[in-house]
Amino acid sequence: MITFEEFKTQASKILGLNLSSYKAKRVQRRVESLMRRRNIPDYTTCLELLRNNSNFRADFLNHFTINTSEFFRNPSNFVTLKNEIFPELFAGGKKVKIWSAPCSNGCEPYSLAIIIDELGIKSHQYEILGVDIDPNILQAAKKGIYNSGALKNVSTERLQKYFKQVGTNTFALSEKIKKMVHFKEFDLLKDTYSKNWDLILCRNFFIYLTSDVKDLLTRKFVDALRPGGILFLGNTEFIFEPEKFGLSKIVSSFYRKI
Ligand SMILES: C[S@@+](CC[C@H](N)C(=O)[O-])C[C@H]1O[C@@H](n2cnc3c(N)ncnc32)[C@H](O)[C@@H]1O
Predict the structure, then answer these.
(1) How far apart are the C-alpha atoms of 100 and 111, rounded to whole Å?
(2) How far is the CA of 93 from the centre of ligand 1 (A)?
């Protein structure tokens, strides 16, 4: 019988995903809940399935990555974005590069696109890229079909303007907004970050990582921002001593590269 630590090392190699970067207790909880659900008796059997069964590998990754997202998650931050951050970023007249990392099912980058459309900003003035490690969730993002749970912060006015009801509980995002965002499969733990972003959203991802990996990725994100660029985090995520990372805090959840 192998220990959980051995399982993690072997599974990371098979999956090409470093499971040690994520908070250990959470990884164990997720793995064990999947094992219970699939009646897998021990870690050795689980490893064999990971090695030999591509469907199980996909299920494992799907179960491991928490894809929960919604439009305008933490609405007051999107008000700050619309009223304070965007007017500043778009004032210069240069193309504004925005990176949603990770973007899950697209709710986050599409929320940005809706605000940009409302501000009347033209297509040559921005670029929005959403990335995620999970290919299935990126497919869902490209489809742009959402149930009402993901739309609970969308006003009636926005719902009427940007969505079409396609089922009892299902809404399709307008083609106009879908066209404003590009998506790409990307592993934030190991892939190379491109540079010169004006705004990076990294929300509800750090909470899953060990504090060392969180610090490492904070440095990579800061490096990827242009000087003066902005990092936007989730509501429960904080950077203590932001100046150590070359950042200064603007308001809650928003940091600027010095
Ligand atoms: C809770 S969602 C956050 C989505 C969005 N930012 C939000 O706040 O609503 C976390 C996402 O992180 C993705 N993820 C996990 N590990 C990743 C990695 N190493 N690289 C890129 N994305 C990853 C998952 O697939 C999942 O879609």
Answers:
(1) 11
(2) 31
**58 and 130, same domain (yes or no):** no
Q: Are residues 43 and 87 in the same domain?
A: no
Does 189 contact ligand 1 (Cβ within 6 A)?
yes
* Any ligand 1 atom below 6 A from CB of 102: yes
The reply to whether 212 falls in a domain is yes
- pLDDT class of 153 with cuts at 50, 70, 90: very high
Cα–Cα distance for residue pair 28/66, rounded to 1 Å? 14
Half-sphere exposure of 48 (CA within 13 A, CB side): 8
| Cα–ligand 1 centroid distance for 113 (angstroms) | 19
Q: The domain spanning residue 193 has which CATH number? A: 3.40.50.150
Report pLDDT digits (tens) over 203-257: 999 999 999 999 999 999 999 999 999 999 999 999 999 999 999 999 999 999 9
